[in-house]
Amino acid sequence: MKTTSIMIVGVGGQGTLLASKLLGNVLIGQGYDVKLSEVHGMSQRGGSVVTYVRYGDAVYSPIVDEGEADYILSFELLESARWISYLKEGGVLLTNTQKTWPMPVITGAAAYPEDIVEKLSAMADVRAVDALSLAEQAGSPKAVNVVLIGVLSRLMKDIPEEAWTRAIEETVPAKFLELNRKAFALGREGKQ
Q1: So what's the pLDDT on residue 13?
Q2: For position 27, which CATH number holds?
Q3: What is the C-alpha separation between 178 and 139, in angstroms, rounded?
Q4: Which of 29, 85, 76, 27 lies closest to 53, judged by CA?
């Protein structure tokens, strides 16, 4: 089997690391060789956070180079634009439509770019999802990460739904389990 490369991108505090751990657990449970690498920016201050997840029969490096990602899972719209060059031809960019204003926008030194989804859609296969609304429907805006994992699970058709739900049970603390089950189900069943 070829190696599949996934990037999970967002800003600090959005749960990108939990999402990568959950994804890694799903893939290991399916018998794949899995490599993960986390790149923390100024994550405590809302800076960019990137995680690489690569899986296949034999994976030798966790790093995803430009033009190699089969999937990019983006928790924030501007991060989608920042990392789209890493998507390979025929890959899928799955993005939350949520906007998290960076400091230059907050201070008025810059404007948040307009029409990001439309511009990115001209370059690649983009699936934009209002994951924040679905997370709030599940019970917490912090569940955006698991909503997006639910959407990703629909695209990764070779992995059964039970593998995803089992990984959620093994990864998420018990007190947040029901919330995350709901978030996953809403992402998996949602329309995009």
Answers
A1: 64
A2: 3.40.920.10
A3: 9
A4: 27
